[in-house]
Amino acid sequence: MKQFLILFVLSFFLIIHKTSAQYGINASYQLFSASNWEGLIQRSGLEGAAPIESGFAVGIDRWFRLKNARVEFFPELNYARYSVDWGDNTTSMAHQQISLFANTHFYLFDLAGDCDCPTFSKDGNFVKKGFYVELSPGVSYAISSFKGRNSDPSNSSIIPSIGLGVGVDIGLSDLLTITPMVRFRRHFGVEWENLSENLNLISTTEIIAWQKSGLETFSFGLRLGLRLSE
């Protein structure tokens, strides 16, 4: 895992190398859904058993843009954690992800604009200059784990994803930008190999198949951008 983390960090800084100097940090509350895993938990009938429903995420990014159009790029290194404690106070489930996201913002109301964003000293409506739609392919290193049952097992995998979002850049000054944002992300084919065992389910073909699930997150977040002198 250490080697993979090092690769992620190096990849991030290679992406942002030699781009103009604007950095960002973001945090978000996330709703979490994995339909197949939820189905297995329901089948287990274990007292107090509950699916993972929410978590949090933090990320760092750096900005660059196309020269002649309001299409802007925010490659991001992100960490997310989702967990749930069961009613017996001894058992919990957790899912963590370390991700690289290729966030691309399309400023639909100002695609041909000359805004040297995120500078907001020019005249114009901040919604026109700041509203964007985001497309965000990504890849994650995911770890799913049980605590308190069967020797606390865990498993890991590398998973692709695609995200969509909207947000509005609000310029507090020529140096600081704050961005409220809403995002939806779909992760594909995440497998929790020992989930049925931990839920005391008999491993039939159907049960084993349900250990692989798509993951969906719906998030509400805030980004703070800092523009440094070049």
Topology order in helix (H) and strand (E) letters: HEHEEEEHEEEEHHE
Please give the share of residues in helix: 10-25%
Q: Biggest sheet: strands side by side, in what order?
A: 1-2-4-5-6-7-9-10
Which class do the helix and strand fractions yield?
A: alpha+beta
> Average pLDDT, to the nearest integer?
84
Q: Biggest sheet, open or closed, and with what strands and sense?
A: 8 strands, antiparallel, barrel
Poorly predicted runs of 5 or more residues: 119-123
Q: How much of the residues is beta strand, in percent? A: over 45%
Distance between the termini: 36 Å
Give the number of helices: 5
DSSP strand tally: 10
- Provide the gyration radius in Å: 20 Å
Basic shape? elongated
Summarize the structure.
With 230 residues, the protein is of the alpha+beta class. The chain is built from five helices and ten strands; from the N terminus they run αβαββββαββββααβ.
